[in-house]
Predict the 3D structure of the following.
Amino acid sequence: MNTSKEIEEDIQTKNEEKNTKQLSNQQIEKLFTSLKTKEVDQEDFFIFLQKVVHHIHDIVRKEKMDNEYIDNKMGNVSAREILSAGKTLYMNPCLDYVLVTIEALKRIGIKDIYFVVNELHCPGNWYKLHFGIEIIHDGEKYYIDYRSKNDVYLGKDSFSSKYEEKWEHMVNTIRIDADNIETDDTISSLMDKKLIQFRFFNPKTLDIIKAKLKNDNTEQERQEWFVAQVKHIHKPEIFIENME
């Protein structure tokens, strides 16, 4: 049973989360000052992308969030909200990290960035989403894939969910020029702007996903599924693939 002090601290923490002050554009700009570069040589671009990914994990930590967050925020937060909170739900990071990484790349001057959405057909005849990034640099196409847990894959080629190699089949891909994505955009606002129009995914499916995540939202699950299976809970493990 929690002590009175623990209960008070829990209430204080929740109030602080609710009252998190949103970062200004200038404050967000400062978060990425160390990444700014005048020119990135093609042979160093993978090194540069690794630096970006490490920096993103430094400023946005994967944490266990309460069920209220899963109900009200998961899958529908903006880059500004994520950066202001400095954390994201450890069980569902791909969308949040993609939005924040796009924000970082744009602010440090990288051009030709694309927000990519894969619609995946799953066993049981339902559909889920996976998000990634494509960048065209010096005539070459690169991708960033926040695939699972702390695993991040970088490669040359179009972004394509590798989940389909296991049990899911990709049925549609949506690409959005990142110039059309604002700091305060969410999936809902992108849908309102008609930048995202799903062919298969039913947004109501998100309620089913949220129910499962809430059921798994225990400290034991976090320890067994996440903490015990990563090398460091706050550092990415980066893999380079498709280099040719």
